[in-house]
């Protein structure tokens, strides 16, 4: 196994060793941000509520060996679990002591909640001038929608994603995975590291709506300047034809793209349209989309998947099988790269990227609720003996994302 996916409690410290991150966020976007930092060596202290902890502990599929949610094993990996009741003055004091020496706080309460808890970012940064407070919400810390609950579905609907996703005569489609949360996790991790690199304590405002909006490319510009609205095209895109998924005679599916003109012409020759002026350029193929897609679909439908892939490889054109998760687990390329390492017996995605000189490392899967509370509080006592009791902590409202 390569260093890039080395697992276990012992091993290289990672490039973020010495950085402490306090993660009191829940579900996927905020915890995902902290997970990326943990993967590269940060000491991530996961602060969880006493009544069940992070939502992902009870979400989705469970490991049949120990009945622990697979979502939690992924999102909690590399983190130490501490239980604190932020409605309790003593526990709120422990939280403040953690933040007094931390580099990053990741939270995803609705805007204003952190302040009502007595953890105002301005006060936290005044007490710890290097602290980066990463706030992950549905719509950001300000604006007319700021107070709305932050669910990815809302962002997927409002960002334009759902409106362009689906078949031409079908309904707008939401993604069947936690797409927006995962994208926002990467955005938040990137922005957090930029802020840490600045050396200045500050607030990072990351949100689901604008993170997914970034994925829309020039579509806002095209609407503003050209009054262009992209239609739903199934698996197609408006500026390159053919591009989509096509069913083979054996029932398997293949994905094909021709986003380079030289590739497109080789595919046109392969399927019998060489020299046809209706397919002579990008614009011509877009104009005659039905002809191109129909001809390619018919050509693919006469062949099984191996034959299609072999023909495209011989033509130096882009085609790939549409994988199931079973195919992915058996993919020799992913196996050779160690891209799906086993972490405490659970196969899961490896590191998001590889560093040649200072690689990251997955240390452990999500740990039991409160497994590290005593150890972390003992560290606090050693670092700041006798500090931390806070009087009159306000109640804890629900988190947003």
Automatic annotation (TrEMBL):
Keywords: Transferase. SUPFAM superfamilies: CoA-transferase family III (CaiB/BaiF). Belongs to the CoA-transferase III family. One of its GO terms (molecular function) is transferase activity. PANTHER family: L-CARNITINE COA-TRANSFERASE, SUCCINYL-COA--D-CITRAMALATE COA-TRANSFERASE. This is CoA transferase. InterPro entries: CoA-transferase_III, CoA-Trfase_fam_III, CoA-Trfase_III_dom3_sf, CoA-Trfase_III_dom_1_sf. Gene3D superfamilies: Crotonobetainyl-coa:carnitine coa-transferase, domain 1, formyl-coa transferase, domain 3.
